[in-house]
Write a structure and sequence with these properties.
Strand order of the largest sheet of chain A: 14-13-15-16-23-22-21-18-19-24
GO molecular function (chains A, B, C): beta-galactosidase activity; metal ion binding
Structural class of chain A: alpha/beta
Family (chains A, B, C): Belongs to the glycosyl hydrolase 42 family.
EC number (chains A, B, C): 3.2.1.23
CATH class of the largest domain in chain A: Alpha Beta
Distance between the termini of chain A: 26 Å
InterPro entries (chains A, B, C): Beta_galactosidase_Trimer (IPR013738), Class_I_gatase-like (IPR029062), GH (IPR017853), Glyco_hydro_42 (IPR003476), Glyco_hydro_42_N (IPR013529), Glyco_hydro_b (IPR013780)
Keywords (chains A, B, C): Glycosidase, Hydrolase, Metal-binding, Zinc
Oligomer: homotrimer
Chain lengths: 675, 675, 675
């Protein structure tokens, strides 16, 4: 079996040989075929400057390797050791308020600091030398969860210097900069690039403001977001390039998916071999809506290369975040979630982690095995999951998720712009994209979550949620796509700002009014006391978040206000544009209305649904085998039976058993079906 | 027409001549007769130190002037340019935690810094030279919204030095200071003035605490509030004096009314020509209670001189405060609110602003016209408002709001003292004063919101809400007023502290026990689970916020506890004092009870109501014409019809049309009536 | 009468002789026999460096003494004077974010700073000299409420240096330290002790985080908690040792009981003569549950020595915390609460305070007498309380609270560990212990709240709530206790971590699995949507906070899951261990279930209840007289009558009056009974 299933392992935490041997035995008996190691052990690998000792990790790699267990080796750069922080205080991360982040937690380094990069190069070279050709090593993870916990926007002098330099290179003159960023607002224009200060208002969820509100230039801010993201990418590539000179194994890093959003992953993974991410669904309650959405993103970053789930819930335990402990997995939920991940095109699922930490900030939180090394339910469920995975491996390895008919386009500039200046507290860019994805999923439609920079010309439908920032290239692609016969679905907050986060002085959706056949006439947030009813003829819905009220410029209204002083005004439009059709959805809706609207649109675009009647908490993933056959994985995330009605009689894709048309799936169960 | 109606305009944001010409045309066609310019363009006016270029603003003033549109010119001192912040870092504002506020937002300067004042003088002189005699300039605005966004209490060394000096001058010896401030509490007495540190706990709504609670001396704090307020006044006068040497035009600044409360406006406007303020009522929902209250304050600061509304809502758009976008104006609401402002004795209403900002912290928020320069509903409503304003101008210009029979006295020391040590989270000094004002308004009584330093001897009734800080002068005026036959209404939290924010060692209300005929016996906050019923004989009410339980010293009880262990004890008293009457209202009440109580009191004081039966959301403003005739402006702020019953048959003051006694006013409508 | 009853008095605040004389008179007429003085007047005692002036305090001590009123003298070290802060800036407290706490509030000093300790020594010596032999002085209070308001964890360089030194002394080598703290987690091992930085994430309730989450090492953190606690103890002893050389009077300090929890009081009071604490029950609403629990702790710290309540509610007034004013005492509540405190073995009750402060951060909050020096209800209730206290003094002085049959064990390491990493926001270590105590109290059982380091061998039942941190000594004591025939009651979160805050690699409850006859199998927080029903056969309950699901190793299940996927699994166990019995209660319950469960356990352990049927809001305190007779004090904390049913006919212990078996107690009343 090529699929990798295992967990993180920290041999460097073990002091007694007996305990180590016991762990080896338990790992072997778990059935795991992969472990992940080393992302936090720089202190062990380089106990003092220039002195390296890889024996602990190397021995574990080899011992496990001989048992048939492969290792993903991590570079340890998330945590510079104490001696480095003490001897080179300039490597410290500096927060938005100018306060140094001292040694004592993690991510306490500046990713742009050259001293730190120097130490990074040396340790990565040693890792390359030591593990590059090791037959038991299956791949490399660079660092750990870049930009987590408010560590993604360093404000040190080095960062300021590099940022100023990057601005200077891009804009050449302060005149050009001032005009591009609209800096005459509040008299903020520069006469010298060196006058630029870093933005101060926090955008990271863990950062704290200096005062309650500090009104930075949004253009400075968006450019700084890109700069910091690019700095991480530069730092990633610095490591990747060294590793590539030592190894042919796969190189990746573990992103936080849509959790942190400090780095543009589309850009970062251009030079990686495999996309990696960490995900912590709640294995008791979770309907996996977010996971499903994120997995669609994950499998499309590097197409035709299965992604690696490098950290994954196992359930249970105290929390890292104080007072927020985790529920134990519902019986069967580990297998359910793991198989869902593999069915979503994961090539590896690596639980976090083998044994509960006794010490440190993450002590007592979730792991496969408790601190007493007594195997219990989670361990046994892991074993059973591995057995069943093997039964499914032939199907999973020789198939991949069927390319969807629908793409959902994601854009980091829009994400950041709407984080810098949110329009409504309840609204989030990613949250709304996930709402649309989930509505499709519940209807039985699949969707690929991709960058607008991808080629999306062969999708039947392209949905563009809140693409607030637009550039000529994106606008041209969307127009060309529609002109050629595609069905384009735009939403409120589309095409208002340029890539400097400056609003464009045109009627919105800027550059796309012709394709959508509408102008945005009035915009407005939706408050609880201003919710209006929108009429679609055959159904109605309530508006949500935000309104882009539309003025027809050729489009026909398909959704109009049923009440309020806007009664009769257009809020959802449909336009024929050359060979294609473009819809503009000027507001968000309650779930039911969203589903009816999307169903109407996709039906008209001749998009096919999965041949099942589904329900909330049930998901179908259709995989296409190398012989063209389809296998439908159906998951029941609920804690009660699910009843799925198929269009035709089904058989089990693993056992060949006849299943009829009415299929019952047990709580937290799943099934692979041919129809 | 002498009334000014227009909006802010930012010609310095425009780069293309074509766009500029289009703006001129749109402004002209809007019908506006005034614009406000220049409050944030120091970077343009003085692009580098000592180099001045006023051409952009001057050209716009002249171009618009030739079209018949006048300009209010602002000094640009709210935003020092980047070169100044970089080259003179000592000018930076320092917050309560000692953190410098760097260039990048606005208000990033210390108003006490001499370097900054030096630059200020030079730019203001240039403005005086350039625009002082320009025939198209109608007046000058100094700076912009002093003390906004946590910029009103600088903690830099210069401020500390000046504050220490001012304390030294006032108190002469540390012995005197220690005794005056009661500094032996917590052993805080000084032996040298130089030991004084600035207070740290924040009072500004946008400042952040150092620790959750830092217990400064309230006396230090109140003195620092006055010092900072005086510093702003000094800074204002520094500019005003220069301008006066160049011009005869009106000089003002745009205050934030009761929004920020960092500066004592009664004191600041002693040297100004006209009172200016900014107000942002919600034009969808607003009942205008706060605006009405604030306008009464505004028109009484400089009597017989119409105030200028220098920034005013236009509705719609993204918010400056992230996630807090604004609703579009309800149809008709712009006109409704604007006419309400003029009817309240505004001489100018200047919307914020002409065209939606494309860039900067305020990008995409509200303006007359959208970023695509396409006139839409707000623009058309502006045009219509201007037309109707002209129809009303004869009435409005030749009348002024009739002096009320009732005054509400405001005191900044009490405001600050209750902000420094609030007694109850739900209670605010201004909020409670506004509650009383609103109760009167809904009953058809008008009230003038004035300083206790004004002459209030000719009012029939004087209401003194929460005058927590008392001085001999104020106490004497209140006593003399009552003795001479006035009706004095005091409330809970009256006359407890002196102007050093030290409680007076006497029975409260200190110095006023004789006039009120009561002593305060027990005080107590009112919690949800301790609300008591108060009985007034003919009606009852529920107490709120705070209790001053009263012990009779001659007064008769008119409100007593109907339940709780205080059943029968006095909470509202009435006392005859020489020729007058004094009421002490020992707690706040629900709205209905407040109205019944005030109605009883005012009736007994022979105060006349407007001759209409009103309702919530409807307001009458009675104006007195030069010929003594009265015109009643009645506003319906609701989104439904209002029905007003008049005591006699009415006619429309504009058209002369007969209206009968039953008057229907459309949603967001208004009417001017003679009766 | 040897019982002390009075209030704090601040003669240093008084400037006029007349006022001083009036105060002396009022104090005398109040009937008080004790005052507390001097904790905040260093500025008066040492007006400039090395110049001492004790006349104000000394005169007051003597004047009052001659009236028969004794004084508790405080050292003034909570508030270094301004000249010291200015001239020796190095003495300042530094917060977790590295920001100095300047002069201006209180506690603005570092307790480890040698300069500060030098000044401390000198002033304390002077106090010893001046008051050590004064016949009117009854005792000494050292400092004031150590570690209040976020002042308990100084982060200055001196503290860092001493902490590093203490770590070095304890662990000898970094290897040993790294292993003991498990520092290989996140690569945090040290190669030099000097690399240690102080922990940054705040644990104090008033401190503020640096970023939203900063994940310190919990081992570093717990060691720092102990270090800071020890530093306070060292600082306390530094003062106590000096005083002891001058006086034989009692030495104490006023702790905050379970309010602040910055210092291990068991350890601090080993060298004190009497335990002192401050308590502020709400005299309107309070059911005294927390006070009752805290008093049990207070009277057991130094056994057979009545504790001193050094600050105590008097009710009413503005709050120190802005917007959180205090209710006035319900009529009778002062006496009720004071007698409850004496009945709980207080030897002194000192109200805070004599006269309302006019100035400073605590201005206008609660005192016996208002700022106008007019005696009102609180004063009269004080007088009456004193009269009644005298009537009870014979009984109270010649008896003490009967030793309970049940002990509740408290452990500061567990308290801190659960504060460093809470398991659930709703759960607190002290809160849960108090829940158990209250359940017992309402059933009529008394309990002694003691340290596990006390000898608890002669209790019938020992309850160990959440003893998360375990050491060999504690485990051995618990085992020996049970083996010898005791009834041990453990709860969830018992015996998981060692004293370095590192989880132990054994099955939990670590070291106690044999005595309890169970292993903890799965752990989990309880959320609102995951509450399960637990079945005890004769009753049921709902789980709360946290689950330790149990696996039987000899114990019998007495509580099992009635629903959820764990139906039938054990959550409460009972085990016979040698001569004794051990219960493990794997979760918390609703109040009713907790009572039923504890009643079952205590009945089986033959623990006797008070011979009354009680109810919520009613408490019995049984006192044992020197002749062995029992007197039962019964308190009604409610604002309505309480009806108590006695097992036999009763008589009043003061008057001898026959009371029968049905006893009615008035609102906020109490009675002393013999039965």
């Amino acid at each position: 079996m090529n699929l990798l299933y295992g967990f993180s392992f920290y041999p460097e935490h073990i002091y007694e040989e007996e305990a180590y041997q016991k762990d080896l035995k338990l790992i072997k008996e778990s059935g795991a075929n992969v472990v992940r190691m080393g992302e936090f052990c720089w202190d062990v690998l380089e106990p003092s400057e220039g002195v390296y000792d890889f024996s602990t990790i190397e021995r574990a790699v080899n011992d496990l390797g001989k048992m048939g267990i492969q290792t993903i080796i991590c570079t340890p750069t998330a945590c510079p050791p104490a001696w480095m922080s003490r001897n080179y205080p300039e490597i410290a991360y500096v927060d938005n308020r100018g306060i140094r982040r001292d040694f004592g937690a993690r991510h306490h380094y500046c990713y742009n600091n050259e001293t730190y990069r120097g130490f990074t190069k040396k340790i990565v070279e040693k890792i390359g030398e030591t593990f590059g050709k090791n037959p038991y090593v299956v791949g490399f993870q660079i660092g750990n969860e870049f930009a987590q916990e408010g560590s993604g926007r360093c404000h040190c002098d080095v960062c300021r210097g590099k940022f100023v330099q990057s601005v200077k290179e891009h804009y050449k003159t302060t005149e050009n900069l001032n005009q591009s960023w609209g800096l005459r607002f509040w008299g903020q224009s520069y006469t010298d690039f060196n006058q630029i200060e870093l933005p101060i208002a926090p955008t990271e969820r863990d950062a704290r403001p200096l005062i309650k509100s500090y009104f930075d230039s949004p253009s400075l801010r968006l450019n700084f977001e890109r700069f910091a993201s690019d700095s991480f990418i530069e730092y990633f590539n610095l490591q990747a390039d060294i590793l590539k000179s030592y190894t042919d194994k796969k190189i990746t890093t573990n992103t936080t998916g849509f959790g942190t959003n400090g780095v543009d992953y589309f850009k970062m993974f251009q030079t990686a071999d495999v996309f990696g991410l960490d995900a912590y669904p709640d294995l008791y309650r979770d309907n996996m809506d977010n996971s499903s959405f994120e997995n669609s993103f994950a499998r499309n970053i590097i197409r035709n290369e299965k992604f690696w789930m490098l950290e994954f819930s196992i359930g249970g335990g105290h929390g890292l975040w104080s007072g927020e402990g985790r529920l134990q997995p519902y019986p069967g939920a580990i297998e359910n979630a793991v198989m869902h991940t593999f069915a979503s095109d994961a090539g590896a699922v690596v639980h976090f982690q083998y044994k509960i930490f006794c010490s440190g900030a993450e002590q007592l939180n979730y792991a496969l095995i408790d601190q007493d090394r007594v195997p219990r339910r989670r361990y046994f469920e892991f074993q059973r999951t591995m057995e069943h995975l093997k039964e499914h491996s032939a199907v999973l390895e020789h198939s991949q998720v069927k390319k969807a008919d629908t793409a959902i386009l994601i854009d980091y500039n829009s994400l950041w712009a709407l984080r810098i200046k949110p329009v409504k507290h309840e609204h989030s860019y990613i949250g709304y994209a996930c709402e649309l994805y989930t509505a499709l999923k519940e209807l039985g439609y699949s969707a690929d979550v991709i960058s607008w920079k991808n080629d999306f010309s062969d999708y039947k439908t392209v949905i563009v949620p809140n693409m607030f920032v637009i550039c000529d290239e994106a606008a041209e692609k969307l127009k060309a796509y529609t002109a050629a016969g595609g069905t384009l679905v735009g939403t409120f907050l589309t095409a208002i700002k340029d890539t400097d986060n400056v609003a464009i002085s045109e009627s919105g959706p800027c550059g796309l009014t012709e394709v959508f056949g509408v102008n945005i006439s009035e915009i407005e947030p939706v408050f609880e006391d201003t919710v209006a009813t929108i009429d679609f003829g055959s159904f109605q819905g309530k508006d949500k978040y935000w309104l882009d009220v539309l003025e027809g410029k050729g489009a026909e209204p398909i959704g109009t206000f049923a009440n309020s002083y806007r009664r009769g005004e257009m809020i959802v439009s449909k336009n024929s544009y050359q060979k294609g059709t473009a819809y503009y959805i000027g507001t968000a809706f309650d779930d039911d209305c969203t589903k009816k609207l999307l169903d109407t649109i996709l039906k008209e675009a001749s998009v096919a649904k999965a041949p099942f009647t589904l329900a909330k908490g049930v998901e179908v993933i259709t995989r296409e085998c190398s012989d063209g056959d389809l296998v439908h994985y159906i998951f029941n995330f609920k804690r009660e039976d699910a009843h799925v009605q198929a269009e035709k009689n089904c058989t089990c894709a693993i056992t060949g058993k006849q299943l009829g048309k009415s299929i019952k799936i047990a709580p937290k169960g799943y099934i692979a079906i041919k129809i």
